[in-house]
UniProtKB/TrEMBL annotation:
This is Neuronal membrane glycoprotein M6-a. It holds the Pfam family Myelin_PLP. The lineage of its organism: Eukaryota, Metazoa, Chordata, Craniata, Vertebrata. It comes from Pedionomus torquatus. The chain crosses the membrane at residues 71-93, 114-138. The keyword DNA repair does not apply.
Amino acid sequence: GCFECCIKCLGGIPYASLIATILLYAGVALFCGCGHEALSGTVNILQTYFEMTRAAGDVIDVFTMIDIFKYVIYGVAAAFFVYGILLMVEGFFTTGAIKDLYGDFKITTCGRCVSAWFIMLTYIFMLAWLGVTAFTSLPVYMYFNLWTICRNATVVDGANLCLDLRQYG
């Protein structure tokens, strides 16, 4: 009856792909949230402690660059959301239940080629993510160090500066 139908339907779910998709979305959300928080905090520190203001007009300043980096983060998040959906669909089509239903040699050969393509693409994305992680971890690390210094610094002579860069030249 209905129970056997539900068990058969649940047997076709690619649980490994489902878990991998959830992990992908969690990682992208963490990257997007941490990057946004670090960049917004950097703007706040620059305006509060270093008395920097946005340039008027169409001048590219540090604030414009920070806004561009935010949009890049949002674009990466959207692209990997779509990529996660593609991988999930590919996982559904390459499960054993679908192969049993459409067991033709051409379909399974095409499925193997698609799977190999996604494995290669995922490997390339993994290497790219290692580079992105290395590239973005330094600004986040510098932001949190500067935030800690500015939070713990005492205000001297009524100035709102927490770090005097003149001592470094």
